[in-house]
Amino acid sequence: MDSHVNYQAVVVDCVNVCLEDGQANAMPALERILGVPTSDIEKALGGDLRAAYTTRRLTAEQYWDTVIMDILRLSKSGVIERIASARGVTAEDVGSLGSLETVINEHYKPIPKVIDVLERLEKIYLLGMISNTSFERSTYWQANFPGIFRLFGHRVLFSNLPPYVRKHQGLKEMLNLMSVHMNLPVGSMIYVDDKSLNVEAAIDAGVGGSIHLTTTPQLPLASTQQELALPSSRIVAATYDTFESVLKESYQLKL
Predict the structure, then answer these.
(1) For residues 58 and 135, what is the distance between their CA atoms, to the nearest angstrom?
(2) Which of 75, 116, 159, 188 is the Cys-Cys partner for 79 at CB 3.0 to 4.6 Å?
(3) What is the C-alpha to C-alpha distance for residues 53 and 85, in angstroms, rounded to an integer?
(4) Residue ranges covered by each domain of the chain
C-alpha cells in the first residue's frame, strides 16, 4: 500500500460489512413458510424483477405481489395461508403488506466485530456508507439500527441502481458523490465491500485503498483475478477477525 496517502475516510457497504445478509439468513424460515427450496425462492426474489424494484420502476406492493405469484406457481398448496399465519395477518393482506420482506428484514443483524472497529474509527476519521437496496429496506435498517447509522451521520448513500450497474459506473458515481458530502478527494478514502467486483471497481474509481471483507480471504484473490484479469495484489483481503489489523498494518490507520 502507498504509505504516502493521507487516508481521511473509510467508506463501507452495508450487507456483510455492517449487517449480516438478512435474505441469506432468512432462507430456512422462508423454506418452511413457503414449502419450496431456496433456489426457487432466490430465483423469484432476484433478477430483473428485483432490479425494477430497487430502481423504483415497481412499487413494493407490485414487487411482492409478483414474487408471491411466482412462488405460488412453484409451491405446494396453502402457501398464502402459511405466510399469513407466520406473519399474523389475513390471507388477503399477505401481498399488500410485503410479508416476505418482513421475514427477511427480521434476519438482518449487526456484525459486532466490524461495528466495534467502526466506532473507534469514527473518533478520528470520517465514515460513509454506500448501499444498493430498496427504499423500504433502507428505511427499516435506519429505524432498527440507529446506533450503526449514527456513525455515518448524513454520509449514507443508497444508490438505487441495479447490482450490475453498481459494479461499474454506478459505484464510481456514488464514490464521487460521497467525496462531495465529505469534502474530501476520492483518493483519501478506503473502501470496504464483501464483493470482489465492487472492490476492484472502487480501485478503478480512484480510492486510495480497498478491502475485500470476507470469511475466506484466500479465495477472492484468485476469483477476482479470473473475473477481471487484474493482479490480485490490488486487493487487501480481511475477515471480521482481521479487519482491524488490516486497517492498521496495510493502511497505517490509528485505532
Answers:
(1) 12
(2) 75
(3) 26
(4) 9-20+109-251, 22-105
**Cα–Cα distance between 179 and 182 in angstroms, integer?**
5
The sign of the dihedral angle between the CA atoms of 122, 146, 27, 162 is: negative
Query: What tens digit of pLDDT does each residue of 151-196 get?
Result: 999 999 986 655 544 544 578 888 999 999 999 999 999 999 998 8
Q: Are 190 and 203 in contact (CB under 8 A)?
A: no
Q: What is the largest CA-CA distance in the chain?
A: 63
Reduce the secondary structure of 60-103 to three states and give it as a string.
Answer: HHHHHHHHHHHHHHHCCCCHHHHHHHHHCCCHHHCCCCCHHHHH
User: In b/e form, how buried is each residue of 153-175, taking b as 16+ CB within 10 angstroms?
Assistant: eebbbbbbbbbeebbeebbbbbb
Q: Residue 197 and residue 167: Cα distance in Å, rounded?
A: 6
Q: Write down the CATH superfamily of domain 9-20+109-251.
A: HAD superfamily/HAD-like (3.40.50.1000)
pTM attached to this predicted model: 0.79
d(CA 105, CA 209): 31
Residues 6+ apart with CB under 8 A from 143: none
Per cent of the chain over pLDDT 70 is 73
